[in-house]
Amino acid sequence: MSENNYGYCNYCGKYRPLKWNGGYCSEKCYCESGQQEQDAIDEERYQLMWYYRDDVGAFIFRSIVMSIGWMIYYLIVAKVCMKFNLVGLARFLGIFQFPSNVIIPVVLAIVQNIIVRGKGKSFRWFIQFGIPIVLSIAIIIYMKLQ
After folding, report:
1. Strand, coil or helix: what is 20?
2. 36, CA 20 to 30 Å: which among 53, 74, 77, 103?
3. Residue 104's closest CA among 138, 67, 78, 134?
4. Are 20 and 63 members of one domain?
């Protein structure tokens, strides 16, 4: 065994090979320290966080939530366009007619979900919130230039 596998046990303090989670020398030390219970609680909490998981159920739930968000975004953009001028609103709504005003948000949500699979929290937040913010700024600038 290499020297790198040895260390002081986090529970009993003996210098031994550390074979168990988090630097414990035996299963007994791991269980008695309470770390096993804490790891079980942490895993249960992680399983409840649908936005971090990448299974099918979480993917579908995230897609539904993001689709609703994109539909709300669509309505807000339509309101902003109406505020500037009716020609811009008519042009904007002419591009997005039913069923595309339902299909496009669903497709955007699925694409976002595919992009964020297995990525970190900051990247997920950028993709989920940054894209609508950048699009909003671009639309407002476009409407002001007309």
Report:
1. strand
2. 53
3. 67
4. no
Dihedral (CA of 116, 119, 120, 126) sign: negative
Question: The whole model's pTM is what?
Answer: 0.53
Residues 73 and 136 in one domain: yes
How far is residue 23's CA from residue 9's CA, in Å, rounded to a whole number?
Answer: 6
Residue 1 has a pLDDT of: 44
Structure tokens at 66: 């993001």
Please give, one letter per residue, the 3-state secondary structure of 71-129: HHHHHHHHHHHHHHCHHHHHHHHHHCCCCHHHHHHHHHHHHHHHHHCCCCHHHHHHHHH
Per-residue pLDDT band at 94 (split at 50, 70, 90): low
Q: How confident is the model at residue 95 (pLDDT cuts 50, 70, 90)?
A: low
Q: What is the amino acid identity at position 79?
A: K
Number of domains in the chain: 2
Place of tokens 């009993």: 12
